[in-house]
Design brief:
This protein is mostly helical and 444 residues long. It has 2 domains: 255 residues, 2-methylcitrate dehydratase PrpD, CATH 1.10.4100.10; 115 residues, 60s Ribosomal Protein L30, Chain: A (2-Layer Sandwich), CATH 3.30.1330. 51% of the residues lie in helices and 5% in strands. The chain contains 19 helices and 6 strands. The strands form 2 sheets. The chain has a 4-stranded mixed β-sheet. It has a two-stranded antiparallel sheet with strand order 1-2. The longest helix is centred in the middle third of the chain and has 21 residues. It starts with 6 loop residues before the first helix and ends with a helix.
């Protein structure tokens, strides 16, 4: 019996009602934008070693399913979700729900597309499932994500797993009791360490979250029972992740739509470096003597400093470079787009960029948040970014997403990239799913 005022009841009943919910047009549009972002960054990661290793491993399992594995044939839904979720996070170029410090799109769309294809779900069912997963992930992580990250846990491995389970439960049409057991089965698999950032394990967190969410819902559909109080304040999950009780899971209420507050990345690096990169790129447009600068000072929030600020400025790999604030600021100062092309193998960083990066000092300022930063050159020219590009208040829309998508997908699809983008923009009208599957299943 679910207590009607509990977090569990709110979450479970929201999931169970997903099939009959009329989504507002702006929410549907936001889910489509997440799909376009997910697909673009996944396609652009074709050559990434982490994606290839996971894809090859999935192929070796010979699961015999019919869910599309990008660049890898087909597999059972959990394994396709693992491969595609990993791929979508390889470039670290995917969306972020800032209040939960979580990449929601990578695990949740991976789960929805894999399971939806296996079940023969339609476009609107998939959109409803994705929105359900997004709202569950964002609400369980809101207010807790920063505390979890600061204590060494990757929010995507925590809240993304819950979102994938909720989305999968929606596709199965689970009732509230079954949905709560699916969430319990997902919550007990919580994993992902911040200490793994800069390695192949970080994108694996997103893929494993997608896989575990699918499996949790499959188990619940077959009568599996898990702990049902884990998502209550002090109920188990928050106490385990934040053992000093400095933060806890919030009281869950479903008012408004959190998906409308999602953020998208213009740069292929950790989201925490983006405001400083914005500032650096603005300064680059004012100065042509970057090499001659003696001192470069970046002021950032505490979380940005903890995760990205203490690096050397001379990363030893592309993955390290994405989490090195000094190096990313130097890229921006030298006029780079800080795109996927700036973090490719074979790794040969520009010596001039590294020399500039070694001049960067980083300080924490309490007024700086997730999306703000200040960069100063030689104590004489300073740029403060209050809201970085891609966040609510300074958003990326369909035109910006079109440019991002083409820059990533044209490397794989050529002229067909534009056609695929149009299908994501129209997803839910019932006209494009078969064409999209055909285009994606033909990739090798």
């Amino acid at each position: 019996m679910i207590a009607k005022t509990s977090n569990g009841s709110q979450l479970a009943e929201f999931i169970a009602a997903s099939g009959g919910r009329n989504l507002p047009p702006e929410v549907i549009d936001a889910a489509r934008l997440c799909l376009a972002d997910w697909l673009g960054v996944a396609l652009g990661a074709k050559a990434e070693p982490a994606g290839r290793v996971v894809r090859d491993t999935v192929a070796a399992w010979r699961s015999g399913g019919r869910a599309t594995v990008l660049f890898g044939g087909a597999a059972a839904a959990p394994f396709a979700a693992l491969a595609n979720g990993t791929l979508a996070h390889c470039l670290d170029f995917d969306d972020t729900y800032v209040a939960a410090v979580t990449h929601v799109g990578a695990p949740v769309w991976a789960a929805v597309l894999a399971l939806g294809e296996e079940m023969g779900a339609g476009e609107n069912e998939m959109l409803a499932a994705f929105v359900t997963g997004f709202e569950v992930a964002s609400r369980t992580g809101a207010g807790l994500g920063e505390a979890v990250t600061a204590r060494g846990w990757h929010g995507t491995g925590v809240f993304g797993r819950l979102g994938a389970a909720a989305a999968s439960a929606s596709l199965f049409g689970l009732d509230a009791d079954q949905a709560l057991h699916a969430l319990g089965a997902a919550a007990t698999q919580t994993a992902g360490l911040v200490a793994s950032f800069g390695t192949m394990a970080k994108p694996f967190h997103a893929g494993k979250a997608a896989m575990d969410g699918v499996v949790a819902a499959q188990l619940a559909a077959n009568g599996f029972q898990a702990a049902t109080g884990l998502l209550e304040p002090g109920g188990g999950l928050d106490d385990a992740l934040v053992q000093d009780r400095g933060a806890g899971i919030p009281k869950i209420e479903f008012t408004g739509w959190n998906i409308l507050q999602n953020s998208f990345k213009p740069y292929a690096a950790c989201h925490l470096v983006h405001p400083a990169v914005d500032a650096a790129r603005t300064l680059a447009s004012r100065h042509n003597d970057i090499d001659g600068m003696r001192a470069i000072h970046a002021e950032v929030g505490a979380l940005a400093d903890k995760v990205t600020g203490g690096k050397s400025g001379t990363p030893l790999s592309p993955l390290e470079g994405k989490f090195d604030l000094k190096y990313c600021v130097a890229l921006g100062l030298h006029g780079h787009d800080v795109s996927a092309g700036d973090f490719r193998e074979p790794w040969q960083p520009d010596p001039a960029v590294c020399a500039t990066a070694r001049k960067v000092t980083v300080a924490v300022r309490p007024e700086m948040g997730f999306a703000s930063a200040r960069v100063t050159l030689d104590e004489r020219d300073s740029v403060h970014v209050a809201v970085a590009k891609g966040h609510p208040g300074n958003p990326i829309g369909w035109d910006d997403m079109h440019g991002k998508f083409l820059a990533l997908a044209e490397l794989v699809l050529g002229d067909d990239a534009d056609k695929l983008f149009a299908l994501t923009h129209a997803f839910g009208t019932g006209r494009g799913l078969d064409r999209m599957r055909s285009m994606l299943s033909d990739l090798s």
